[in-house]
Amino acid sequence: MKLGSSIFPRKIIPIEESLSYFESNRYIDYMEIFHDYPNRDINEDNGLIDLFNSYDLKYTVHAPFIEVNPASVNPALQKASIEEIKRSIDLANTLDSNIVVIHPGRAIFLNDREYMSSVYRIAEESLKAI
Q1: What is the pLDDT of residue 9?
Q2: Which of 30, 31, 73, 128 is the most exposed place for a label (fewest CB within 10 A)?
Q3: Distances from the Cα of 70 to the Cα of 23, 30, 101, 105, angstroms
Q4: pLDDT per residue as tens digits for the range 57-91
Q5: Start-to-end CA span in the chain (Å)
């Protein structure tokens, strides 16, 4: 069995300290990077990417989910959500990771069958687009 653990919050523990901890802990196989606030802009920080790549670690990337909904019935929000998830896939590729965790969406009106049918269809379309 392989184990992974999320990175410590950067605002609480410096990233170097987290990386050193994970590199020295041989019980954890993967370090998960939460790719949402405050880590959303990792893609644009070449120094941080170089820092991640300087450690002997395997990474997984957890795509944003707090304000992201690829199953949104609002096409503009669906499109923006897909783009955010694609940014996480780009980050994973940059870090030579082959694992990205996503949430395929959420629904508000669970007792409305027509709405739920749309949500499932849109979520599937989004996954295909990703």
Answers
A1: 63
A2: 128
A3: 34, 26, 13, 5
A4: 999 999 999 899 999 989 999 999 999 999 999 99
A5: 28
